[in-house]
Amino acid sequence: MDDRRWDVLFFSGLDPVQRDSVRAIVQRHRTRMTEVWETVRPRFDSMRAQMDSEVARQLTPDQQAKYRDHVTRYRHQKDSGEDRTGSEDTGAEGHTRGRRK
Fold first, then answer.
1. Range list of H helices, the chain
2. How confident is the model at residue 11 (pLDDT cuts 50, 70, 90)?
């Protein structure tokens, strides 16, 4: 979920003092979490590439093209914060993932 949607959905229920405290906590940890993600990301990207290759070998050329298009759109949405479902994306398909810096 992108920052704006997170703000609306979560922060709207907090009083101003709570909102400021929670934002400060998140901001304080964000830098370290991003640093950790950056150390893990190369391995994650390698695993994802291997998975994509294995999937592609099971598909016809037309299906491979559709799969690549689907994956490209999905990952772009995840990376740009568009149409996220769930929390702020700290898991397998991406992490604040270089997204909420």
1. 3-6, 16-56, 61-80
2. confident
